Amino acid sequence: MSDLPRKAVTRTAKLAALPLGFAGRATWGLGKRIVGESAEIVGRELQQRTAEQLFKVLGELKGGAMKFGQALSVFESALPEEVAGPYRAALTKLQDAAPPMPTRTVHAVLAGRLGEDWPDLFEEFEDKPAAAASIGQVHRAVWHDGREVAVKVQYPGAGDALLSDLNQLSRFARLLGPLVPGMDVKPLISELRDRVAEELDYGLEAAAQQAHAEEFADDPDVTVPAVVHQCDQVLITEWMDGVPLSEVIAEGTQEQRDRAGQLLARFLFSGPARTGLLHADPHPGNFRLLPGGPGKEDWRLGVLDFGTVDRLPGGLPTPIGESLRLTLGGDASTVYELLCEEGFVKESIELDPDAVLDYLVPIIEPAQVEEFTFTRSWMRGQAARIADPRSPAYQLGKQLNLPPAYLLIHRVTLSTIGVLCQLGATVRLREELEEWLPGFAEELNRPDEEAAAAEA
Fold first, then answer.
1. 326 contacts 364 by C-beta, under 8 angstroms
2. DSSP label at residue 314
């Protein structure tokens, strides 16, 4: 029997308490103001209390609640600094850890899936989990052939918990919206819910991870642990050490931050081109910074958790690269035509192409230059521009449409940018786009090439 709260009544009660708690704290804050405390002090206390309750509940429930929390955690860069501070520590906790399930439950799952003699498959097995996440936890062990391995064990009842949580969260998504300015939380929850079955299927995860492990086996920059064994509710892969990206964000050197950011961008865009798969869960808990190895000074990027992927047999869609290239070139009418063709502008709506271009240009600023420093302040500026109901960008953004085929790509891209801003990394993004994004490099003139052509 698992300690994962599975009963619908129990989980619903915990989640339902969140909006009540928000309202209660607002009343408490008003009372503090009446007795004379400053708005700034009261505001900070409210933010701290809200963060503590929200992420305590999400972490305790694991399942879909924690999955939602992890998805939110990469967007903390968008929060105003006076709000982000109290939330940051609570958000980060969700990226690497959750309360573990009892040892007896772990042993019961292993016995049921690997057989009663499962201990014979290992030379060593650590009962204390090395990491715990939304639907499973990881134990460090030594396989019978001497390889160090990570044993991922799925929580019993994880599927029911995922669906129950996400259904409940969707009911008060409006209340959660202010956590991430400029982002509509409800589609995020719906997209997470749509991928529950895939997330629970360790067979699909093993296939996706092994495809990446084989493709990146000799890569100097990216490492993916190979799959050792897989069965229902249990996935065993090679162990990977390294510095968690959350630690690099918290206390890494600028060199580490820049290197991690460059490799994260490279993996985002090269993965689909090389494997036909897009890693779709880019929160810092799924990445490690590894030493370069014998004779190599540079750090490498280690990548974990392929439970959610987008299957893109032809790589990232060419219209993404084409529209980005045309936007950089200032071709408003052609950009607009392409967006209409792809369904970003519905047939029933007519927009000003120049206004659409003005909306897009600030977003693609990192691709306009040879290298760009991603910062929280830049992210906050983008969020404020899109979230302010008084701004033209907000009004235009509400009229644009996100086609289903692009939904996951959009979320992964935003999440990766969020992590780059948390890192404060200087990244040569244009270089990765030219190398890996279909449609981007075609007919693309660099500024120095344009100058040379003008002189000629």
1. no
2. T
pLDDT reading at 30 higher than 70: no
In this predicted model, what pLDDT tens digit does every residue of 300-347 receive, in sequence order?
999 999 988 999 998 999 999 999 999 999 999 999 999 999 999 988
Could you read off the pLDDT of 234-263 as tens digits, one per residue? Answer: 999 999 999 999 899 989 999 999 999 999
Burial class from Cβ neighbours inside 10 Å (0-12, 13-18, 19+) for residue 447 reads exposed
CA angle 348, 351, 353 (to 5 degrees): 140
Alpha-carbon distance of 55 to 96, in angstroms, equals 13
Tokens standing for residue 302 = 């280690």
Distance from C-alpha of 364 to C-alpha of 361, rounded to nearest angstrom: 5
Cα–Cα distance for residue pair 347/50, rounded to 1 Å: 42
DSSP bridge pairs for 372: 427
Summarize pLDDT for 366-390 with one digit per residue, the tens. 999 999 999 988 988 888 788 777 8
Per-domain boundaries in the chain? 318-455
Quote the CA–CA distance of 158 and 6 in Å, as a whole number.
8
Alpha carbons 309 and 210: distance in angstroms, whole number: 13
Nearest-angstrom CA–CA distance, 9 and 144: 43
Q: How far is CA 315 from CA 168, 272, 310, 385, in A?
A: 35, 5, 10, 31
Report which secondary-structure segment, H or E, holds 426: strand 426-427
- pTM (predicted TM-score): 0.78
